[in-house]
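dude i think i finally got it to work??
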Amino acid sequence: MTIPELKIGTVTAAIPIVQGGMGVRVSLSSLAAAVTNAGGIGTLSSIGLGDFVDSLTEYERISREALEYEIEQVKKKTSGPVAINFMGVLSNVNDLIKTAVDRGIQIIVFGAGLPSSLPELVPDPSVNLVPIVSSARVAELILRVWDKRFKRTPDAVILEGPLAGGHLGFSREQLERLDEFSLERLLPGLLEVLKKYEDAYGRKIPVITGGGIYDGRDIARMLKLGASGVQMATRFVCTVECDVVDSFKQAYLDAKEEDIVIIESPVGMPGRALRNEFIKDLELRGKFPVQCPYRCLTACKADHANYCIAKVLLNSYLGDLKNGLIFCGQNAHRIDKIVTVKELFTELIAGLAAA
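look at this
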């Protein structure tokens, strides 16, 4: 079969696969470049890149310089399109977005918050803006504001379903009714919302579905339902090119389905993670001391938080899994080996063709 290209504004990828951004330091330049070189779109995460100790006194500068370094590294490894993922709840998100644009990044992915003023922050139409949404209602709000205030539409929309890893755009109650909020149910409503703006602007707004996408059959199913591409994150953790330590990847390989749980994050959102020693200890103790002089997340109530999410995610990246949080998607338990990104793409494309 002919594999459909994925066109996001001014950028085209040969394979309709976007690697999801994973902080803290899970998706760095090595992984993002490998995905892009395989024909997809690699994504750097802008979250938690700076040195933890140095950031205590100069958080904004250290974060900016760390992002500049990752952009410099990824450009040495690929000449293809690379996206950067930003969380709206980051206290310095605007500074980081401006930094990425100044360094020539062409795709800005924005989640964990409403990007109401993103077109004002990034007025250059050659820079492609991609909000992450969890419902047609949220997408409608973004599109309406962008149309009224900036006469602009997103260059693509990522629809992230409830089976995704990390922070989720769904309530605890919604996550207990997964079938009602599946991608299959959410996608038609989003396509309907987008059509009116596509007609008005005379251009397609591609939808990229994410959350629980595991194999080629899943990709084929999404494309048949009207998606233009898929976002995958969890599958890329157990690749050679992913920068996390081997023990982090081994935690995925050892995981059973019952080990994957929903937690409450200090950010104020539910999250999906592995129930490891850290989570078990947290359940017993209820709280770990939090000292936060720089407030990296605007939504984090540090004085009342039961742990510092930046610190525990960094612990996992560094290999201190006993004191670390490990985010993962619902299908992490299905991964049984470590492969190269190229091998993973070969498997996914073969499964897509067969489906």
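The chain has a mean pLDDT of 93.
im so relieved honestly
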